[in-house]
Amino acid sequence: MIYYAEDDTNVRELALYALRQASLDAEGFADGEALKEACARQVPDLILLDIMLPGTDGLTILSQLRSNPSTADIPIMMLTAKGTEYDKVLGLDAGADDYLAKPFGMMELVSRCKALLRRCRSSVVSSGKNNLISCGPIRLNLDAHEAWAGDELLSLTLKEYELLRKLMEEQGHALTRPQLLEDVWGISFVGETRTVDTHVQTLRKKLNEALPESGNIIQTVRGVGYRMKLGD
């Protein structure tokens, strides 16, 4: 199920029609309050969220969804007329998984939604062999899209998972913030952004809660960025 919060009726109905024609279940809402009420009744698989909404704006709603345990891990795509690089980074800093600027083509919208849904499936194994990456007690099952810390299955957002995967694939190597921003979020940006730092902090918190004796497996490399490495 896909939820779309958009106050422009024409845009909302056209997008919903395109999604349904692609065999995707979708419901639309004119404001953030209606969206949150729907989430309380049924948690969706994906949320499309406009920034310029009446009442509470989309970025505030995004923050509220991320702070609510029942909706914290839902992939969220921002759909907005604000298409500058700065506005895109603001959305990503606030916790969005993807960003699509208006006017957008309906085929692109459907394709991006399918890609997010496909990458977030955690219950379907795509092959007979598990594709595994490990760093000490941290393990990723790439086929099942699962992350484990010891015996605990981690509950990660899409970008937390992809960030962890990148760090584990390059474990021992220091990765710069711009490199992580481009490889994980797919954007090149010169300027101030806390996207990488914020996601590293939340990922560290979840790893430390699962493995309190392990210390910081994700290490800060001063003046460079981050690396994943066992030990000090």
Q: If you had to describe this structure to a student in words, what would you say it looks like?
A:
Helix content is 41%, strand content 19%. It contains eight helices and twelve strands. The protein has helices at 9-21, 32-41, 58-67, 85-93, 106-120, 158-169, 177-185, 195-210, and strands at 2-5, 26-29, 46-49, 76-80, 98-101, 132-135, 138-141, 146-149, 152-153, 175-176, 218-221, 225-228. The strands form three sheets. A five-stranded parallel beta sheet has the order 2-1-3-4-5, with helices on both faces. α3 (58-67) links the parallel β3 and β4 (76-80). The chain is globular. The protein starts with a strand and ends with a strand.
Approximate helicity band: 40-55%
Largest sheet: 5 strands, parallel
Give the CA-CA distance, first to last residue: 44 Å
- The ordered string of helix (H) and strand (E) elements is EHEHEHEHEHEEEEHEHHEE
| Number of separate strands | 12
**Mean pLDDT, as a whole number?**
84
Total helical segments: 8
* Estimated share of beta-strand residues: 15-25%
| Spatial arrangement of strands, main beta sheet | 2-1-3-4-5
Radius of gyration: 18 Å
Gross morphology is globular
Question: What would you call the structural class?
Answer: alpha/beta
- Low-pLDDT runs of 5+ residues are 122-129
What is the topological layout?
Blueprint: E1 2-5, H1 9-21, E2 26-29, H2 32-41, E3 46-49, H3 58-67, E4 76-80, H4 85-93, E5 98-101, H5 106-120, E6 132-135, E7 138-141, E8 146-149, E9 152-153, H6 158-169, E10 175-176, H7 177-185, H8 195-210, E11 218-221, E12 225-228
Parallel strand pairs: 1-2, 1-3, 3-4, 4-5
Antiparallel strand pairs: 6-7, 7-8, 8-9, 10-12, 11-12
